[in-house]
Structures are given as structure tokens and as C-alpha cells.
Amino acid sequence: MRHRFEDSEEMYLKSLYELERTLNPVPVTALAERLGITTVSASEMVRRLQGRNLLHHQPYKGVRLSPEGEQRARAVLRRHRLWERFLTDQLGMGWVEAHDAACHLEHAVNDDVADALDVFLKHPDSCPHGNPIPREDEPENRAEEQPLSELEVGEQGTILRIRNEGAALLEYLEAHGLVPGQTFALESIAPFDGPLTLRLRERSTVIGREAAEHVLVGKVAQHG
Q: How far is Cα 38 from Cα 32, in angstroms, rounded to an integer?
């Protein structure tokens, strides 16, 4: 039987792995914010995980996963994203509900079950939010991408993935029609770090800059 501590440990490792995609090392404050806990609680878990050689902590700088910690984090992420794929593709759940359910299911099964699920789903490449499903001993093979917030007015692109899968953000983006595969043109950016106006296929929509930082896109080459 699993213990709640094991589940908590896996949540820390998974969150660290995701944060390391943009922060290296990861400040303990950023980890605490991601998990919605106090810095004191995050620091205590960091000490425990460091004692088990799952991460390296540099005081006043931040945290990095050890090779063993990264391996465990990738296994948790794989289970999570496979469950998301199953819940959306096979059960017809929305991507917000699937994410929340997968956060529980990722701790409830072992890698043998995940392997069977992977075969059943015919080895999908990504979760519903566009994030790659880790494969054993394979590095993440990402397309050329950049945050939506870094584009300039007039540029066009396609949404590739959402790198922060928090429920509130997913609900916000879905309401604005901003999902992987959606094409757009950046029409305007309000001054003083204001929101972005995007032209989608059938309508325009306005998105806050903070949310745009989590939307990773591929730019479309413009001719003539």
C-alpha cells in the first residue's frame, strides 16, 4: 500500500522537473508557489529529498534534480500524461477534468500499468495539452517553440503546448479558444505590459500577458 508521503514526494519531483524546463536551478520559492504551499514546507521536503539523493540543493541559488530524481519524475509525468490521454480520448472528459483526475491516478498505478496503457493508446506522443509523453532513455524532442508573450504584432503562429497545466489557467485558455493546434495572428499588444489581442480563425480574443507566457507556440513563416 502506498503512503501519502510517497505521493507528496512524487508531486515535488514532477513539479521540479517541469520547472527546470525554464528555471535552472529552481528557486525554492518558485517550487512552493507551484505547489501552493509555504516556502518553509517546501524547504523541509527539499531537505528530505536531498537526503535521499533525489536532488541537489545549492543554498541561496536553488534546486536541481539528480539523475535518479529526474528518472523518477519522468516516470510520474509519463503516467500522468498517459492518463490524461486516456480520460480525454476514451472517456470524453474535458482537458481540465482530465488533468485533475490524472493528478490522483498518477500515484495509484505502477509502471507496468502505465506500459499497458501506453500500448492500449497506441503510444501517443503528447498529452491533450500538447506536452510530450516521456519515453525511457529518450530526451524530449521539442519543436522550435517560444512563449506567445514574446511574439511581435503581426506575427502568426500555431499553439503547440501549455506548459503550466494548472486548472485555472486551462479553464481560462479553453474559454478563449486557445488550445494546441489553434492557429492565430497577433493583432495588437496593449501598452505598459497590457494584454494581447489575437485573431483566430473565426474571431478575435484578448489574453492576459501572464497567461500568454505559458502558451508555447511555433511561428508560421510569412511570405511576401
A: 6
CATH code assigned at 26: 1.10.10.10
Rounded Cα distance, 44 and 108, in Å: 24
Interatomic CA distance for residues 82 and 133, integer angstroms: 7
pLDDT at 6: 60
Positions of the chain with pLDDT lower than 50, given as ranges: 1-5, 223-224
Q: Phi and psi dihedrals of 84, rounded to 5?
A: -60, -45
What angle separates helix 67-89 from helix 111-120, to the nearest 10 degrees? 40
Cα dihedral: 45, 50, 51, 54 (round 10): 100
Contact present, 178 and 159 (Cβ < 8 Å): yes
Q: What is the pTM of this model?
A: 0.87
Domain that residue 182 falls in: 146-219
Angle, CA of 86, 92 and 94, to the nearest 5°: 95
